[in-house]
Design brief:
This protein is mainly α. The protein is built from five helices and no strands.
Length: 112
């Protein structure tokens, strides 16, 4: 880009190269992005690995803490979405009771 500075403005070069002005300035100064973005496939790989290692015992709140504890930037929303879309953990209860509730009465009383 420096070689073309005399013929084109920075705005024109950034538009043609599809980069932001601030990104080109950071690159020129030798800056690196402060965090890397993970794709959904990479995120799902992390979730599945943790889910398999812990035998499916984690729901989304614990999964968020576990993923963050392993040094991966994570938000509650994307973990919940991926778990829901790919049916990992308790995000899809599918007829199972939550382990925090206990059935104290029977729905159908016994006869006889």
């Amino acid at each position: 880009m420096e070689g073309q500075r005399t013929g084109y403005t920075l705005d024109e070069m950034c538009r043609v190269l599809a980069v932001s002005d601030s990104g080109s300035r950071a690159w020129k100064q030798g800056g690196t992005p402060n965090r890397t973005r993970l794709t959904d496939a990479q995120r799902l790989t992390w979730i599945r690995a943790i889910h398999d290692a812990l035998k499916g015992a984690y729901g989304s709140p614990r999964m968020v803490r576990e993923v963050r504890g392993r040094g991966v930037p994570a938000s509650k929303e994307w973990i919940e979405r991926l778990m829901r879309e790919h049916a990992s953990g308790r995000a899809t209860r599918g007829g199972t009771r939550s382990r925090r509730t206990r059935r104290t009465t029977c729905r159908w009383p016994r006869t006889g």
